[in-house]
């Protein structure tokens, strides 16, 4: 299983390189798709997340010739082995990469739900400050943290006021290599970088374990995860602003996007038209995509 997870991780990193190369050479098609996805926030605050799943899957299908993708779908959610929303297929080898898509604002980002609530209790076994590199390695190799080896996350991060977005992928390997301390931060406490210790502070209602690098900088955290915890109070999290050095940008940095009001009108009409109308529209839309491809 571990070897299979490593192979999947290597495949995903190869995909990331290809996506980043495409974004550097054909930035306009990435901007176009992301503009359309984040336009969905005009319809509903959470709509863009679902649209991102089908939009990115179709982007890969249409524009990345060595890869294909399919949307897993919500009907399969409870039966899924991984936390994937889409599956990316290498067209040369036919190997599949399960990927979890996240559409979050620039800030806290959940990387894994830790659905079995194993991570936090595992860390509790070692006390409130873990700095022995041997023990830290042992923790990462434990069953409680094995799921991180199979989590391939593709976060679409946005800054709504600035109308900017960035596809930022967290580097789990770098995180494991650079973690030098794992520190318990209790409720009503916060981490102080100057003293590299916890101090009294307001705001936190549940404890966390914070992962810190050799310079005393924040990397990520495991949130309290007992049976009563909700999805926002458990799992493996990071912060896109505070841990920027542990992300790889597939869009080569922040890109601007515009709202496409015509797309909103298209949805209005589509929801009130027949399937025959949708078929005719699909032909026109595919022709437009083919014209985009000819600009490559």
- Helix run count: 8
Mean pLDDT over all positions: 91
Largest sheet: 7 strands, mixed
What overall geometry do the principal axes of the alpha carbons give? elongated
Gyration radius, to the nearest Å? 21 Å
Order of helices and strands: HHHEEEEHEHEEHEEEEEEEEHH
Helix content: 25-40%
Estimated share of beta-strand residues:
25-35%
Instruction: Give the total of domains.
Output: 1
Count of strand segments: 15
How far apart are the termini? 40 Å
Low-confidence regions? none
* Helix and strand composition category: alpha+beta
Q: Which SSEs are present, and which pair or pack?
A:
Layout lengths: L1 H24 L1 H13 L7 H17 L3 E5 L14 E5 L5 E10 L2 E5 L6 H6 L4 E2 L2 H8 L12 E7 L4 E7 L1 H7 E7 L3 E4 L4 E4 L7 E6 L4 E6 L11 E5 L7 E3 L5 E2 L4 H10 L4 H19 L3
Parallel strand pairs: 3-6
Antiparallel strand pairs: 1-2, 2-3, 4-13, 5-8, 6-7, 7-14, 7-15, 8-11, 9-10, 11-12, 12-13
Helix pairs in contact: 1-2, 2-3
